[in-house]
């Protein structure tokens, strides 16, 4: 084996490249054949070209207030066509269920009346916004863009880690990663059929135009950004440019008589669809934070009047609540009358009787997460935490059980990653991006693979210092990989069971019980 791999070791979980040490999986054979003869110096030169390209183009991410190039590792993550088809249909199924749930919870509330989701879960969610109740989007779509975070468990099964249906970010890095990798590993691209990612802006624009208010034949679409100081501003600008639409800030828009217009040098121009990258709290100072200077006063009233579409819809955050996440398998059964195609990570609901005490006795074995956390903030990995950290999180959990969930610690899958001058295994997750136009759900082939760069680290988020990898989905001549998934009609199934019981002391999490039965 070449020097690059001489110190490579398989980890305790699933290795994406190797079935066993030195034996690459079929999907990685071409890449392995390219890397194996290279010296560390040769690979280092290519890695330097990658880093320089990102720096020269200003592809950055703000980490603790400091702008820096977004780390892109030179070794891609590869997913076989058959595996990806399972991800596509599983992600689409999940979005269909969440769309039905959001329409229900901001409408008739049948899911609450039937007891599938307890009312207290919604009443105590920080992201359930009463101001959004009763607003019906023109084409019924609330989740125009979704980012569903996946991991592989120790057996190589994809599991859902969390849902992101508010303002999922990171797709710009997917596109830029691909452009850069095509330059530094051209021989692998020539030998491998990889599904492209450059159609994302066109698919997104199609979905946004389809969401325009009724009677608008040529809708005007804009991207609403908080401004240049936002950590994802590079993405806002790139998406607007690639879609060929205006990038605006709140001060560029005005709402009068429930109609939204954009200020231009030629006068005010009508706006029909706003792809917003601003949090709900700051979007409309009339209904939310009155001190917001980056939103648009009256915007929610315009949406309620059907004069403008906000994408993603206001109030979607209730579906991102990590406690609500534990009910998504039940929502799939309730609304779709289907079994979940992508299982959750085994999770404990700490506000259920008997569960809290059971979890408090096992803090050093579990992963503790705040239900409204984002970007990896607040997560405590019990096996890696110091005693004072466990004591601190114990106090927080006891004071607010509703504010936390506990999950089994999954040994995330690993991909060879260039660390110094050698390839070493590092943990990864995957964020596929999905676009919903009301008739079909299209999942971008590949998505964003995030990699934890420190050895043994399990938190892969960019905001916690992680990097990324280009994600290659292999094409298949026989399966419809990369094709949109149609959306059949959905509705509550009154006779659907509420799902397996929550875990109590000594019991496995509900989702684990389900998996054992399948």
UniProtKB/TrEMBL annotation:
Protein origin, superkingdom: Bacteria
Segments of this protein annotated with the region Disordered: 461-518
Comp. bias intervals (Low complexity): 507-518
Signal peptide range in chain numbering: none
Pfam family, one: CP_ATPgrasp_2
InterPro entries per the UniProt record, alphabetical: ATP-dep_Glu-Cys_Ligase-2, CP_ATPgrasp_2, UCP005522
Ranges of compositional bias, category Pro residues: 483-506
Domain Circularly permuted ATP-grasp type residues, every copy: 76-452
Name of the protein described by the UniProt record: UDP-N-acetylmuramate dehydrogenase
């Amino acid at each position: 084996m070449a020097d690059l791999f001489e110190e490579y070791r398989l980890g305790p979980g699933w290795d994406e490249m190797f079935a066993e040490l030195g034996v690459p999986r079929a999907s990685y054979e071409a890449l392995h054949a390219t890397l194996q003869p290279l010296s560390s110096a040769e690979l280092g030169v290519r890695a330097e070209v990658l880093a320089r390209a990102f720096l020269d183009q200003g592809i950055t991410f703000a980490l603790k207030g400091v702008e820096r190039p977004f780390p892109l590792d030179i070794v891609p993550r590869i997913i076989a066509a058959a595996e990806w088809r399972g991800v596509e249909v599983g992600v689409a199924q999940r979005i269909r269920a969440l769309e039905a749930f959001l329409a229900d919870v901001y409408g008739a509330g049948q899911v609450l009346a039937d007891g599938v989701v307890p009312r207290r879960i919604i009443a105590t969610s920080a992201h359930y916004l009463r101001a959004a109740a009763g607003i019906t989007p023109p084409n019924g779509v609330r989740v125009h863009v979704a980012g569903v975070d996946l991991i592989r468990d120790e057996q190589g099964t994809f599991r859902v880690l969390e849902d992101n249906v508010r303002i999922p970010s990171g797709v710009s890095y997917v596109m830029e990663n691909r452009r850069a990798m095509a330059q530094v590993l051209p021989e692998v691209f020539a030998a491998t059929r990889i599904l492209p990612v450059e159609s994302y802006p066109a698919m997104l624009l199609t979905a946004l135009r389809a969401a325009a208010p009724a009677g608008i034949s040529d809708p005007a679409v804009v991207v609403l950004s908080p401004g240049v100081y936002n950590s994802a501003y590079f993405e806002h600008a790139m998406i607007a440019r690639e879609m060929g639409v205006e990038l605006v800030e709140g001060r560029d828009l005005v709402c009068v008589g429930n109609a939204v217009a954009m200020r231009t040098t030629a006068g005010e121009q009508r706006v029909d669809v706003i792809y917003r990258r601003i949090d709900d709290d700051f979007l409309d100072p009339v209904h939310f934070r009155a001190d917001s200077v980056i939103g648009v006063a009256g915007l929610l009233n315009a949406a309620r009047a059907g004069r403008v579409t906000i994408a993603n819809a206001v109030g979607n955050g209730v579906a991102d609540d990590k406690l609500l996440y534990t009910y998504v398998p039940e929502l799939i059964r309730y609304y779709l009358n289907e079994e979940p195609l992508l299982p959750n990570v085994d999770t404990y609901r700490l506000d259920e009787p008997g569960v809290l005490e059971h979890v408090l006795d096992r803090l050093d074995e579990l992963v503790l997460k705040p239900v409204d956390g984002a970007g990896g903030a607040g997560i405590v990995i019990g096996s890696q935490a110091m005693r004072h950290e466990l004591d601190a999180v114990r106090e927080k959990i006891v004071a607010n059980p509703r504010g936390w969930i506990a999950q089994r610690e999954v040994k995330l899958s690993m991909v060879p990653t260039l660390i110094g001058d050698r390839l070493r295994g590092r943990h990864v997750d995957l964020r596929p991006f999905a676009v919903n136009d009301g008739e079909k759900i299209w999942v971008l082939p590949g998505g964003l693979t995030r990699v934890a760069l420190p050895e043994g680290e399990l938190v892969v988020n960019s905001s916690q210092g992680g990097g990324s990898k280009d994600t290659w989905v292999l094409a298949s001549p026989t399966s419809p990989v990369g094709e949109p998934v149609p959306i059949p009609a959905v509705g509550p199934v009154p006779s659907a069971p509420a799902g397996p019981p929550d875990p109590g002391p000594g019991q496995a999490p509900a989702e684990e019980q389900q998996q054992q039965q399948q």
